[in-house]
Design a protein that fits this description.
By secondary structure, this protein is of the alpha/beta class. The chain contains 8 helices and 15 strands. The N and C termini lie far apart (36 Å).
């Protein structure tokens, strides 16, 4: 019964994404005030974390796809995100979106051109997404780019798989995709392949992301991820 902070993905747009926003008025723990929004959590020692929840369905997709939903690419959202990032005085800034930017399977050039420079300029520490049915931890090879990218696709187990040779990124860790799981290639029943991630902020300077399998066993721990604001 903990509070949920929700964002929309492609399958939500197959239904009625606005109805999910309205559901926030029905169930208090369902926090989805708008298709994109941000909120701040405060910790001990004057440490704060600001979460920026964005709607990548109307950013990542081209006009032809968005026409099916009666939408257009939302450049206004990008402008408002930039303003919110600029105003933020939080110790940590983390951006959440449904679609990936960098993964072991490829990268989204439009988001790299439009979103990544903005996040780098305003010292975002991590971008966390879903959509791809795998667990990934990747980072740009460029030393000047400090953001870590995590795909949390609810379907990971310990171990690595062969990945597509995507130029310009470092693969910290990659887990089986949904295809491998469906084929029984994950070493057991598919339900034991699924899992979740936990982010732990360690004061002002470092945070750690861990992957757990469905049994609650820790299968991956990142190295300390430095805070671009205090590095």
């Amino acid at each position: 019964m903990k509070p949920w902070y929700v964002l929309a993905g492609n399958h939500d747009y197959d239904g009625d994404e606005d109805a999910q926003v309205k559901y926030s008025k029905v169930v208090p723990r369902w926090n989805f005030p708008s298709l994109y929004y941000n909120f701040t959590k405060r910790m001990a020692g004057k440490v704060s974390v600001q979460f920026f929840m964005i709607d990548t369905q109307v950013l990542e997709n081209g006009e032809s796809v968005l026409e099916e939903y009666g939408r257009k690419r939302d450049l206004k959202q990008l402008r408002e995100l930039k303003e919110a990032l600029q105003r933020s005085r939080a110790t940590w800034k983390i951006v959440f979106g449904h679609h990936p930017i960098y993964t072991s399977k490829g990268k989204k050039e439009w988001l790299i051109q439009k979103l990544v420079p903005m996040m780098e300029e305003h010292k975002v520490a991590a971008y966390i997404n879903g959509h791809v049915h795998t667990f990934n931890h990747v980072k740009s090879n460029k030393k000047s780019l400090r953001i870590h990218y995590f795909t949390v696709g609810s379907t990971g187990i310990q171990g690595t798989i062969k990945t597509k040779n995507v130029g310009g990124i470092t693969h910290m860790k990659t887990y089986p995709t949904q295809t491998e799981i469906d084929k029984g290639l994950c070493g057991g029943a598919a339900k034991y392949c699924r899992g979740f991630a936990v982010v732990t902020v360690k004061g002002k300077r470092n945070m750690v992301l861990e992957f757990f399998n469905v049994k609650g066993a820790r299968v991956y721990t990142s190295k300390d991820i430095p805070n671009p604001r205090n590095g």
